[in-house]
User: Fold this.
Amino acid sequence: MFKFAFIFIYIFIVFLISIIYKRFNPNNKELLRKIIHIGIGPLIPFAKFLEIDQNSALYFTGIISILTFINYQSKLFPTIEDVDRKSYGTLFYCISLFILIYLYWNKDPTSLIAGFFIMTFGDGFAGLIGKNFRSKSWTFFGQKKSLFGTMTMFISSLIIVFGLSYYQKYDLDLNLFTIAFISTILEQLSILGIDNLIVPVVAAFLFNYFITGL
Assistant:
């Protein structure tokens, strides 16, 4: 019970921070969403540290996915997806986490964390930098992308895969650049927030295939 209480408290704190921020900065909708997006990132390492089993993690993530879907219909918590474009990013975020837990929770947790961190931190910081710093931009499938945001995605992804590989004593080779590069390319495809599904799943698969071999 303590394990799940810790998880719930952590999630509550992340949402509380976003709600408090919204009171003082109601117009920065992208940052509000990214506070949640990035803030949830450490959950997987916490859950692994607390030795939560795979089935419990799947049940928990499944319930959150269902609640997120219901929220799209009811708008009980508009902060979650309060952006200036049509997006199901948070729902895809939850679904991708469910898939990663199912595939890699016991088999290869490092690949799970690689994919999840690239989504939460790489994609999260890319959105923040791209929105708040002017640079050359382009439109891809109706979604505006920027040079600074794309560079942030690539650099963040590279730091994540290098850091995990170094920590786990895996080979540091060009495959790490390949993972970061493909993740950055896939992040360009963000129509309806689908990047929150394809980026983490593909990144985890590539890390598993090229790096861990598990």
Q: What stands out?
A: The chain has one domain: 2-212. The longest helix spans residues 109-132.
